[in-house]
Amino acid sequence: MEIKPIKTEKDYDKALERLELIFDATPNSKEGDEAEILSLLIDNYENKHYPIGLPDPIEAIKIRMEEMNLKQKDLVGVIGGKSRVSEILNKKKRLTVEMIRELERILHISASVLVNNYKLAN
Fold first, then answer.
1. How confident is the model at residue 1 (pLDDT cuts 50, 70, 90)?
2. Collapsing DSSP states into helix, strand and coil, what is residue 8?
3. What does the alpha-carbon distance between residue 19 and residue 32 come to, in Å, rounded to a whole number?
4. C-alpha 55 chain-centroid distance
5. Whole-angstrom Cα distance, residue 109 to residue 112?
6. Is 71 exposed, middle or buried (0-12, 13-18, 19+ CB in 10 A)?
7. Cα–Cα distance for residue pair 16/23, rounded to 1 Å
8. pLDDT by residue (tens digit) across 20-50?
9. Are 111 and 100 in contact (CB under 8 A)?
10. What was the pLDDT predicted at 52?
11. pLDDT digit string (tens) for 89-109?
């Protein structure tokens, strides 16, 4: 396959089809090099045309809690008492700067994610 920039959806689809065929190619082989270049081109196209925004801070917390097998009670003392944890996770109250610092330290979630605005529940 001739490697060229991906400019259209048709180009993108062709590149994905080709990559699927050569995905398991031996590294440093002709097809391995082609797969590496196609991966970069596809990634570039996807970043421009299908950007993924930062997650909702509360959803990010819930995802990380799940990954770490944590329960709501495990955040007591990190972001406040039992009722405060519930209010935060149910979007009744907003995260404070101190909560964000602790969550970043404990859950290893970037503060840049935690400071994003989100809608409070009614």
1. low
2. coil
3. 10
4. 7
5. 8
6. exposed
7. 10
8. 999 998 999 999 999 999 999 999 999 999 9
9. yes
10. 81
11. 999 999 999 999 999 999 999
Minimal CA–CA distance to 87: which of 77, 65, 72?
Answer: 72
Q: Is 2 exposed, middle or buried (0-12, 13-18, 19+ CB in 10 A)?
A: exposed
Q: What is the structure's pLDDT at 54?
A: 76
Under 8 Å CB-to-CB from 12, ≥6 apart: which residues?
6, 42, 45, 49
Calpha distance 92→8 (Å, rounded):
44
Long-range contacts of 108-114 (CB under 8 A, 24+ apart): 108/64, 109/60, 109/61, 109/64, 112/54, 113/54, 113/55, 113/57, 113/60, 114/57, 114/60, 114/61
Residue 59 has pLDDT above 70, yes or no: yes
In the numeric block, which tokens belong to residue 83? 């009722």
Tokens of 105: 């330290």
The rounded mean pLDDT for the chain is 93
